[in-house]
């Protein structure tokens, strides 16, 4: 397999991810063909389920790429399960405490780092690791556990969350961050209330050698995030990309 996004991120390179809420392998194929280096299948707010993850991993494999899954809040069993299906990384939303981070890392990593249960038959089929012991010895490094920081409580606990063994990166949810930092008054993803926090999270994550990751709707926000050091950046969503493309085409014919 070509150098994939996990190796790129670990070697310090920037990666752009598509964001997929429409549960179809065809959508993953379209996004990867358009140039996204990987795609996040969203099981939290998007409509992916276990069977669509299974199909989408195969679509990505066909294009020699691997995928990320965002699990629903607190579903640690789903984290392990999607790794078993061949996902390369899992994003866990609303990691607010060290206990949350430890439970997530335990589901994601084999001992001695965590307590992931053995059963990666499908992951081995779609990977280069066909030998069980080789898979066991490489999986912890070859998959990413990415904890979402989206609340004041999470920010207060950030250093302790970053110190949890097995947590590879931090993913900022700028929408929820803006909701919690305005006490429910507004959604303003890169607004004045949260921009300093967004910059600070990247600096603290990089300081301990972990990977700063973020979601951005707009290219200018993605560029700003990159200037802070964010390496894995999701740019818009599948439905957002379709709406934007449709609006542009329609406006070209004066509609
Ligand atoms: C947020 O911005 O809150 C997210 O969860 C991004 O998807
Ligand atoms: Mg969120």
Strand order, biggest sheet?
Answer: 1-2-3-4-5-6-7-8
Bound molecules: 3-hydroxypyruvic acid, magnesium ion
- Work out the helicity level: 40-55%
Q: According to CATH, what is the class? A: Alpha Beta
Per CATH, which architecture? Alpha-Beta Barrel
Please tell me about this protein's structure.
- This protein has 255 residues and is an alpha/beta fold.
- It has one domain: TIM Barrel (Alpha-Beta Barrel), CATH 3.20.20.60.
- Helix content is 49%, strand content 15%.
- It is built from 13 helices and 8 strands.
- The protein has helices at 5-10, 25-34, 50-62, 76-85, 98-108, 121-125, 132-142, 152-156, 158-162, 174-181, 192-207, 219-228, 238-252; strands at 15-20, 38-42, 68-70, 89-92, 144-149, 169-172, 211-216, 232-235.
- The protein has an 8-stranded parallel β-barrel with strand order 1-2-3-4-5-6-7-8, surrounded by 7 helices.
- α4 (76-85) links the parallel β3 and β4.
- α2 packs parallel to α3, α3 (50-62) packs parallel to α4 and α4 (76-85) runs parallel beside α5.
- The longest helix has 16 residues, at 192-207.
- It is globular.
- It starts with a helix and ends with a helix.
- The mean pLDDT is 96.
- The structure holds 3-hydroxypyruvic acid (3PY) and magnesium ion.
- Residues 93, 150, 173-176, 215 line the site of 3-hydroxypyruvic acid.
């Amino acid at each position: 397999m070509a150098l994939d996004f996990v190796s790129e991120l670990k070697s310090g390179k920037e990666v752009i991810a598509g964001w997929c809420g429409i549960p179809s392998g065809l959508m993953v194929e379209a996004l990867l063909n358009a140039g996204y280096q990987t795609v996040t299948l969203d099981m939290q707010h998007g409509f992916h389920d276990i069977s669509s993850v299974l199909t989408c991993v195969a679509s990505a494999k066909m294009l020699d790429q691997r995928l990320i899954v965002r699990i629903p809040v607190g579903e640690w069993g789903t984290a392990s399960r999607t790794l078993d299906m061949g996902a390369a990384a899992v994003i866990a939303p609303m990691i607010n405490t060290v206990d949350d981070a430890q439970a997530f890392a335990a589901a994601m990593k084999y001992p001695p780092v965590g307590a992931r249960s053995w059963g990666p038959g499908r992951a081995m089929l779609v990977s280069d690791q066909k030998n069980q012991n080789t898979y066991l010895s490489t999986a912890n490094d070859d998959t990413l556990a990415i904890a979402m920081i989206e609340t004041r409580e999470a920010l207060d606990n950030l250093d302790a969350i970053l110190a949890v063994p097995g947590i590879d990166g931090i993913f900022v949810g700028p929408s929820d961050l803006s909701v919690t930092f305005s006490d429910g008054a507004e959604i303003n993803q890169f607004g004045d209330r949260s921009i300093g926090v967004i910059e600070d999270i990247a600096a603290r994550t990089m300081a301990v050698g972990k990977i700063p990751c973020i979601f951005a709707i707009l290219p200018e926000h993605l560029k700003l995030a990159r200037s802070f050091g964010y390496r894995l950046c999701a740019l818009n969503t599948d439905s957002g990309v379709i709406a934007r493309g449709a609006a542009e085409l329609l406006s070209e014919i004066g509609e």
